[in-house]
TrEMBL record:
One of its GO terms (biological process) is RNA processing. It is found in: Nucleus. GO terms for cellular component: spliceosomal complex. PANTHER family: WW DOMAIN-BINDING PROTEIN 11. This is Wbp11/ELF5/Saf1 N-terminal domain-containing protein. Coiled coil: none annotated. Keywords: Nucleus. Its main location: nucleus. Residues 1-35 are annotated as: Disordered. Residues 1-11 have a biased composition (Polar residues). Residues 12-93 form the Wbp11/ELF5/Saf1 N-terminal domain. It comes from Scophthalmus maximus (Turbot).
Length: 186
């Protein structure tokens, strides 16, 4: 989108000098307002506590990955809340990246710890759910079951889930470490 001259209209006709002055004043006002908005946003971000945001995300995880009790909130609501919190956290991290590199490194470490805990919680939740599924299946087919085969199937399924979650977690950790290393090199 190109910049339009202040001395002509959209159709290219010459503007009245009064209108031209009004248009330039409006342009200056918008530029000033943009700077003010950016300053206000930065001030609001500085007032937010990144550790509290991480604690809020941990509470959402505990709610979502609780194998004993169904979450109080809908899955979509949990996902949207986590997304909002994560976006806010990322904006705070970007702000500190420019202004305070030491705090930035600390926040990245905090985020990495959170991701690790979340991965472990999800893994535990999946393991419990698989165990419950096998127990239900065993109850339904109790007369036809060879117990040793069920144990092998259960351990294989849990092992597969463990391997997938661990690999995903390792990739996430590696990405975060590489991202942190790239920032420290600069």
């Amino acid at each position: 989108m190109g910049r339009r001259s202040t001395s002509s209209t959209k159709s290219g006709k010459f503007m009245n000098p009064t209108d031209q002055a009004r248009k330039e004043a409006r342009k200056r006002e918008l530029k000033k307002n943009k700077k003010q908005r950016m300053m206000v946003r930065a001030a609001v971000l500085k007032m937010k506590d990144p550790r509290q945001i991480i604690r809020d995300m941990e509470k959402l995880d505990e709610m979502e990955f609780n194998p004993v009790q169904q979450p109080l909130l809908n899955e979509k609501v949990l996902r949207d809340k986590r997304k909002k919190l994560r976006e806010t956290f990322e904006r705070i991290v970007r702000l500190y990246e420019r202004e305070n590199p030491e705090t930035y490194k600390e926040l990245r470490k905090l985020e990495l710890d959170y991701e690790t805990k979340r991965g472990q919680l999800a893994l535990y939740f999946d393991s419990v759910k698989v165990g419950l599924r096998v127990n239900v299946w065993m109850l339904m087919h109790s007369k036809k079951i060879c117990l040793s085969r069920i144990c092998v199937d259960l351990s294989t399924e849990i092992g597969m889930i463990w391997m997938m979650k661990t690999a995903t977690l390792k990739r996430t950790v590696k990405k975060r470490e590489m991202k942190g290393a790239m920032v420290t090199r600069e």
